[in-house]
């Protein structure tokens, strides 16, 4: 006889016990081997699950409870330490298996490079895919000091795959001049500094389209998310990020998957970052999984 | 010969030396034994006092100095560890003794359950009492996994005692669906997410009435109060909370007591939460004790 | 499909999947509501499991691997916050159920009071039970400021139940004068300051007897276990504690159960205490479960 | 052969290798010996340099790159521990040497008292100097418990030197009543609580004048800068402070020098304060050095 | 009515309420302005008092209780920030007043320079004074980068005052070559690395003499005292330091005063250093005050 | 004019300014991308340099000063994030260049895998090379979950290259059963748990031979080195590790290079691990570079 699993931080609160019957799959991608600054996001998913026991299952924002969403927390994909290519292959293969069954994939990073194989999988299924990207950083580098597999490159790879015009970035406040110029020249949308107001303007344009939403926790100001690899002042509040998630939920876009990446617990003694991430995951589940 | 007491964190800065001649009594309720998540608020009052030495005695918000308020810091009530019922009885008895002498009680928690015996004492003296409650959480549970004495229940108990229509909650962003429904069905006021603006609308209705104000520090966003048991993203700023205290001070309500609870220092290495709490206590003293 | 459970900190490394076929049961007692100083040990068991992923399954001390021991990690008993009596009853009942099936109970605290109901259960099964107790503190109080259910009282209760002459305490370096005197007057064994050498002298006397071993992590010097409620300088090293566990394993006593209590992770940013505890649990399993 | 200096945190990112050919000099003033509360700002400059490796060299706010600014990071002035007067003399002498060569001095504290000798040096060169001061505290004391050389006095000294009417303080939310009164009586500008809006009103009045800008990091709310000696709730966001720096950059004032003081890394485990400071330094360089 | 003072960390546990009738005076010297590395020891005395509530009043080492010692905790001397000379003068004057009344002075630092004025006062009263000094560092510099008032100089000053042959240093593992040579040439005793064994050899030589004992907490290995300004590997254990205090207590020397310095709480999140210091203070009181 | 570099933590204290004329080269290998548990050792070398300013340049153990050793701190090799193979190639190439000039290489990790390319370079120059290895872990795996480039494999690779009989491991207390067996079967020396005593027995056998010494900081007990990726209880003290370095220095072996790896500063708020590492580096320089 085993006691209630949630208490021991085993799975995200209110996870269903069975993969097959779930509508959405929550999974961790515990990889941080290509980060150029502070590592540690490999422990993000586990800590987000652990602190989820402090959450209520009801959202007063969306007036919906987690038991109205059938999701299954699959745990962390056992990625091979220090091998980026193999890690990305395993992620893509796993997301393929989720999509094959018509389930909604919701990923937790890990560094932002993990979004790249997910987007590849999504694009195979949804050729008219659009991406909503919330982040402090452009992530539009071709490589990082020679390495094409880097946490600074996923959005560039995604933009080249699905077309820069289908990528919408929000909250960006850091990047190389060349990255901003490339975006501009190639018709990619970048809203600098702000998220909610420009998002309101963009959402109607995406009505009816399949949209993948990737959120780097560092779109938040360091005050709201100190536990991440590369903090950058001047970000948005958790209130604005919650409102942005809700804005998407209430729009006419067809959210077909999402992720939340770059939570690195060791830099945040208070655990506020992991707690905030667990609340964001709850709202993503309640708002985006119909 | 003993040196200046404030330096050693002995009492809150500018405390008078004598209980009898004080108009207000500041007291600690170092109890955290019923909390369902992270304990540690038993050390809140002591740390708030300790860091008060970093405060100025003058408020540029209210243009008033602490020596214009005659208050006495009584220290912490020596509550018995692990015995909730006896702890609550001791608190009620102590607040009775304060009210008997016509003094203003200002309490520091400790978990939020400590407000329940205080409210019982207040209600005996002020039968037309109203409560202003600022918190991230509804605290309206009947019990917590079977325990009626829990930090999740004090506002429910208070509402049942003085009538739900006399309780006004602000900033609420977490609770069970049933709690929100109970409040609605029973005519209790809940302002979700915001504090200052809805408070401005409510205060005129309470003009002239005796009001007890209970503030859970987690009404603040975790960015502003990481040092608390249950952090919850999407909260208000310390600027808004200060303004709310001042709004009450300038209104026509008759504040007859108050408390600030749930400061748990161990989760906040920077001590910003305790520092913020000590500033809030100063403003409560300067604004509410006439 | 769920990924490897151990990675997400779900269960202690190498736990078997089935309660029924296990020879030993590892279980958590997440209670800290009666502690008189720093709370937080409720999170001990969960963190010990989480960091167990950093362990090797092989012990070079005992030349034995975890898969030679059939144990099942049952998770944490869902104890009611703030209700000591009910918590103790639930623990006793659970240990009864383990003993009924002839399995070896290995508990993780939580505060030291949790050992009291375990010992009650053990004594029902083993009337000639002896207790080996390693701790910085006597834990021989009758009550703590009036409360008989306190983390300062479990060994007194145990001694009164099974007879003081059957209790052997080691490493004690803190207590009231009355406690030491009571032990002396009642024929209870107390080795002050040291563990390994006096243990070597005592073990032959206990040969063949059923012995329950309760270890308070604070028997270690604070250098070796900063993450506990009441640190006390002058303790033993983790090397000595490991050697003591091995000494018992190699002796002729019949270890019938054990526990490791008072790990409070929040006071130890480096997580060395939880890591050390997870290694101690491994050695207890490998050394004591035949 | 020595590897890239920036990686090891040796100098601020993009510093030129040569003092002589630089247009601006970045220098540290590692002094904290007169602070009345929490020391530690002596390590501010070193940590700001170290974390600058996480910065991009391009500012999307100002559309300018660091290699367009010729600056040299001179390291820390080797100030004598515990000797305030000699420390101040060394700072003044060093800034004299910078100004003599027509370079722009940008200082990093250290406690706020270090700004006093800098201002003395500036005033010798610019007799019509005005000061923009952003801070939580007035810093207008004559002395602190008898000590005229204190981190609570630099703005008073500056005001008396260059005339109170030439000093503009913003964001002030703490001080003694006497300090506010002195400012008022002597025609010194103090904007309480806010920075950006009142700054917009003041800048046109200073058009064409040489202005020194001194920023105490504690003008930020503790949520945005926990790593400082005296945190004080109710401050501005890093977004507002960045916008204020940019507002000055785009105005018609002639910024002739500046500093950023009171970063005390030890109180901020996440290093967000040092990271924010390094971004502020980048924006000050890009915005103010023409 | 004020509650028990000890709970709020007001005074050291078991302090008597009255200066006049006390045999020993415990006092804090919260000064850290001349330290060359990490400041913060100004908060040492206050934190030591605060955590003393976790102590038992009985010592199983000495079989004595604190109520057998009549001591008074006088709080912290209000030293002027940043003014070393005036601070030292105030300390000397205060210790003079203690000695005048025939009481035993027990000081808590603060940086080690605070021992210098105490020793001056002691020497005035006891012309045949000897000093026992336990420390990681020689503290024999003439000055530190030109400053004669430095935390690196107190033992040199003391040795020059009372004669190097009357100073006995133990546990020393760091210093300049010149310092070790000066000691050797001038007949001062230095035991490198070890404390207990060489102390046993020295004590008989000091039988009957008045001895002042100054302990720098960094004589402990960083494992046992991480919370200090200058940690240095290879030190002794807290067990050895306790035994050394007891060895002195049981010897025939006449201990006439003592101090414990350099506890800097901010570097030790677990608070083990302050806890250890509070236990050391208890043993010094119980062992040295007859 | 640039101020003293050491103060800003730019280079290790007492580093010479010139590569060419140095006898020893100190260099960093900031790589942590293959670690299986907690990353962060990439910041080890930078932090060790930074805290070296707290060191004395004189060793009372060896009676020698750093200016008697001509060494140059080359900074960190700019390794490509997330690319293990290329990183190892760069390290090997750099060490080749050091050896070519007849200089002594002293490396700072980074994860332990960085020792592998160094040993390859050493072996090319010294075909009769022996290795002294101090570590908590065997590091003898063939691969880690399929990855041959892992921090768990360097000693296996080294043993296969130079012959297992030429590798001497000390202090080992963790590994898979297969690793211990492989060592035994292949004639490799492993001293479990202890370092100093078995080292004394081994050194005479290596007299006259060229020896490379690789030290994983986790050979220390977690009490002495909490700031590392994989802490493991039951280790040696820093006193024993210092003595072991000195034992080698005084022996007849010909130390031709060395390294100290796995310092991960983020897990050690007190910075004791980095401070200890900087002292170990000083002793290695003073003891091993003739």
UniProtKB/TrEMBL annotation, chains A, B, C, D, E, F:
Protein name as it appears in the record: Agmatinase
PANTHER family: ARGINASE/AGMATINASE, GUANIDINO ACID HYDROLASE, MITOCHONDRIAL
Family matches, as InterPro entries: Agmatinase-rel, Ureohydrolase, Ureohydrolase_dom_sf, Ureohydrolase_Mn_BS
Keywords attached to this entry: Hydrolase, Metal-binding
SUPFAM superfamilies according to UniProt: Arginase/deacetylase (SSF52768)
NCBIfam families associated with the record: agmatinase (TIGR01230)
Organism the protein comes from: Bacillus haynesii
CDD domains: Agmatinase-like_2
């Amino acid at each position: 006889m085993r006691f209630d699993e949630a208490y021991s931080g085993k799975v995200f609160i209110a996870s269903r016990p069975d993969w097959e019957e779930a509508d959405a799959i929550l999974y961790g991608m515990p990889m941080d081997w290509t980060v150029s600054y502070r590592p540690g996001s490999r422990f993000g998913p586990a800590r987000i699950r652990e602190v989820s026991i402090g959450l209520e299952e009801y959202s007063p924002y969306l007036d919906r409870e987690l038991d109205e969403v059938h999701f299954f927390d699959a745990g962390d994909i056992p990625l091979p330490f220090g091998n980026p290519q193999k890690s990305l292959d395993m992620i893509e293969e796993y997301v393929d298996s989720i999509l094959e069954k018509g389930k909604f994939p919701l990923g937790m990073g890990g560094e932002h490079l993990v979004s790249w194989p997910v987007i590849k999988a999504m694009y195979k299924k949804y050729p008219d895919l659009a991406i909503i990207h919330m982040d402090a950083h452009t992530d539009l580098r071709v490589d990082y000091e020679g390495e094409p597999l880097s946490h600074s490159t996923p959005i560039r790879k995604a933009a080249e795959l699905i077309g820069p015009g289908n990528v919408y970035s929000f909250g960006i406040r850091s990047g190389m001049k060349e990255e901003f110029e490339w975006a501009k020249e190639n018709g990619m949308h970048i809203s600098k500094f702000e998220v909610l107001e420009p998002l309101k303007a963009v959402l109607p344009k995406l009505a009816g389209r399949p949209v993948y939403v990737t959120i780097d926790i560092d779109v938040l100001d360091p005050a709201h998310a100190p536990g991440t690899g590369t903090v950058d002042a001047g970000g948005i509040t958790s209130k604005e990020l919650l409102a942005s998630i809700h804005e998407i939920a209430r729009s006419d876009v067809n959210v077909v998957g999402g992720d939340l990446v770059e939570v690195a617990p060791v830099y945040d003694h208070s655990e506020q970052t992991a707690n905030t991430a667990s609340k964001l995951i709850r709202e993503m589940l309640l708002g985006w999984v119909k």
